[in-house]
Design a protein that fits this description.
- The chain is mainly alpha-helical.
- The chain contains seven helices and no strands.
- α1 packs antiparallel against α2.
- It has two domains: 61 residues, no CATH class; 74 residues, no CATH class.
Length: 168
């Protein structure tokens, strides 16, 4: 949650325009941070401490405009898409649908004037972008990217150093 406060502090420090402040504040709305909430619930029995859902929600406010609603959805979809092990068209479409459904059911878009038609168009646009990002390409001749990853330098986790070609 601290990235919101830190982001707002930086935005004020650098005198960024109000729409940037709004984006920082609203891009998570009051969404539940499920990973940490579920972890706290699992530990609840061990500690005997009551877990309050409100303690695991972003401070908000919820998105107030169409643009901020789209930003929230885009941020969530982009982050979740990085977890896909097999980004097929079906899994991409399913991920987008789940993110949209969770935000709608949680009331995160209630203060925007986004319509179901808008959400359908936004979903299609996200699908198009992610499908293009994740589509498989043919191997580049002369490059074995996978082999380079297996031969990482153990002390740094970096690929082997390339020999100097005498370029600046």
């Amino acid at each position: 949650m601290s990235h919101i406060k830190d982001g707002l502090d930086l935005a004020r420090q650098h005198r960024l325009p109000r729409p940037i402040h709004d984006a920082i504040e609203q891009h998570h709305g009051t969404a539940l941070i499920k990973f940490f909430y579920q972890r706290a619930q699992e530990q609840e029995g061990e500690s005997g401490r009551q877990v309050e859902e409100s303690d695991y929600r972003y401070p908000g406010p919820k998105p107030q405009t169409r643009v901020m609603g789209v930003l929230m959805l885009a941020d969530s979809v982009e982050a979740a898409s990085r977890t896909l092990r097999d980004p097929t068209p079906l899994t991409i479409r399913s991920l987008i649908r789940k993110i949209f459904d969770v935000n709608i059911q949680d009331g995160q878009l209630d203060e925007t004037d986004l319509t179901l038609s808008d959400l359908s168009k936004i979903s299609d646009a996200f699908f198009h972008v992610l499908s293009n990002i994740f589509h498989r390409r043919v191997d580049y001749p002369g490059f074995d990217f996978e082999d380079r990853r297996r031969k990482q330098r153990p002390e740094s986790g970096l690929p082997p150093a390339e020999p100097s070609q005498g370029r600046n």
